[in-house]
Design goal:
- This protein is mainly beta.
- It has a single domain (about 1-470), classed as Porin.
- The chain is built from eight helices and 23 strands.
- The protein has helices at about 1-10, 15-25, 30, 110-120, 180, 360-365, 370-385, 455; strands at about 55-70, 80-95, 100-110, 125-140, 145-150, 170, 185, 185-195, 200-210, 230-235, 245-250, 255-265, 270-275, 280-285, 290-300, 305-315, 330-340, 345-355, 390-400, 405-415, 425-435, 440-450, 465-470.
- The chain has an 18-stranded antiparallel barrel. A three-stranded mixed β-sheet has the order 10-14-13.
- Strand 2 and strand 3 form a beta hairpin.
- The protein is globular and about 70 Å long.
- The chain starts with a helix and ends with a strand.
- The relative contact order is 0.15.
Length: about 475
């Protein structure tokens, strides 16, 4: 009762919508504004047992810098972001069955517009370990591939939207034309087992993750009310009961493949909770909910067509939907086709759909909360995608390569249509390769959304961008 009285006293000074928008917008660009690629497109090393190269050392890397300015439809002034990075990868073959790999990432990031608003230093420099693992491959009665260390674990067959990509976290504070720049991997042990000395069409995979890797989110300072304090996320405890794991069974047929997977772990995006109310401030805590999942994916070729589909059922402790502060069970499905259009064009079209189980129970529970808890729970539902019972949508990607392959262009659209709203993320971009390994890319990030949608809240970040990249 006392809490309700205090809440009522606070309401004249603040807007529930402002609180909800403030915390929801923190990751709105992640939900519908990311430069997206198939999770399965991330590069991986060949198994050591399959590599017969004589030189035990290898190296590669990339150097790039990008600039984001307010777009024509965004009348703001000043540079939004300048991100300069250097990646260096080194590999060493210990013997015919074992290799090691390390990737270091040096980043110098400048976000002057946001820094001016919150009064912080706009430039940060960091040195991060992107990957560091040992890989062992052995051909016996069964082919064994064991990878231990920090590594990228992209799962899924679909383009852009991957319900079974359980382990990938993202640094959503970064704007980039390349989704792999955002991807982060956990410290993990991964075992792939293929029977019949590797000749079997079946492969069985087990993943064990002792150290949880969370996603980082962008909190636009101009949208966070002065009376709201957002605490740093609290990671799950490092105990045996809090560890993550997954199992996957894959089958590779002739012209098609499929897999089934099971996962027990944590949501990569933090869940917001009311921590403290004073007469002048609201403190919001961030923690992570336990998530269980069952998933499946498949791809198949039919002449010039490639079909891909992926689905996952995910549930939390809120199995009946009666706790509005935690996500109810969700079912997400993605399916679509890709095909060439002539010699130079390629098109891919997908449909997406998300269904929320026990949605009525969740809505009923939401109405029983005090106004501030209700606003925070609504923000969680927007961030984590259970705001609507039915969420249909789709993606479109059309690309072109010039005859000499020096010019490349692409149009990508990600859309969703929660009744009665609609929201779109649109990215056209043009790339020119000046010489082998060096290219520049120019493009546009545009957000179109109905009032009350995440994309509408992201319109301050509509932008034009330019990136130069050298890969060696």
């Amino acid at each position: 009762m006392k809490a309700r009285v205090l809440t009522a006293a606070l309401l004249p000074r603040m807007s529930r919508t402002a609180v909800a928008v403030a915390v929801a917008t923190a990751v709105s660009t992640a939900v519908l504004g990311a430069p997206l690629v198939p999770a399965s497109a991330a590069a991986s090393d060949a198994s050591p047992a399959a590599d017969t190269g004589e030189n035990p050392f290898s190296h590669s890397g990339r150097i790039f810098s990008n600039f984001y300015w307010p777009g024509v439809a965004n009348p703001g002034s000043g540079l939004i972001q300048r991100d300069s990075e250097a990646w260096l990868t080194g590999g060493y073959r210990m013997n015919s069955e074992t290799i090691s790999k390390v990737t270091l990432m040096l980043r110098n990031l400048d976000r002057p517009r946001d820094a001016q608003i919150n009064g912080e230093n706009s430039v940060t420099t960091s040195l991060n370990l992107r990957e560091a693992y040992i890989r062992y491959g052995h051909q016996g009665p069964s082919s064994i591939d064991l990878i231990v260390g920090q590594q990228l674990l992209p799962w899924g067959k679909a383009d852009a939207v991957n319900p079974t990509d359980y382990f990938s976290s993202k640094d959503l504070r970064i704007f980039t034309p390349d989704e792999e720049v955002r991807r982060r991997g956990p410290v993990a042990a991964v075992l792939n087992l293929t029977p019949e000395q590797g000749a079997s069409p079946f492969t069985f995979t087990g993943v064990f993750v002792p150290v949880f890797q969370k996603s980082e989110v962008l909190v636009p300072p101009q949208l966070v009310p002065a009376f709201v304090t957002l605490n740093a996320p609290t990671r799950p405890a490092f105990t045996a009961s809090e560890l993550e794991g997954a199992l996957k069974a894959s089958y590779a047929g002739s012209g098609w493949d499929a897999s089934l997977s099971a996962f027990r772990g944590w949501n990569r995006l933090a869940n917001l909770n009311l921590a403290l109310i004073t007469p002048r401030t609201i403190t919001v805590a961030q923690n992570f909910n336990r998530v269980n999942a069952l998933g499946a994916d498949t791809s198949a070729s039919f002449g010039s067509y490639v079909f891909r589909a992926e689905s996952a059922l995910k549930w939390t402790s809120n199995t009946d939907g009666r706790d509005a502060r935690i996500s109810p069970a969700t079912q997400e499905i993605v399916a679509g086709f890709e095909r060439p259009l002539g010699d130079r064009f390629r098109a891919q079209l997908q449909g997406t759909y998300r269904h929320i189980s026990d949605y009525s129970n969740w809505r009923t529970s939401l109405l029983t909360l005090n106004p501030i808890d209700q606003a925070i729970s609504q923000a969680n539902s927007s961030i984590q995608g259970y705001q609507f019972r039915h969420l249909p949508g789709g993606t479109l990607r059309v690309s072109y390569v010039s005859p000499e392959e020096s010019w490349k262009s692409e149009l990508f659209i990600l859309a969703s249509f929660p009744r009665p709203y609609s929201q779109y993320f649109i990215r056209p971009k043009l790339t020119y390769e000046w010489f082998s390994g060096f290219e520049t890319t120019a493009g546009l990030d545009h957000y179109v959304g109905s009032a009350g949608t995440l994309v509408r809240a992201s319109q301050d970040y509509r932008s034009v961008f330019l990136e130069a990249r050298y890969v060696f």
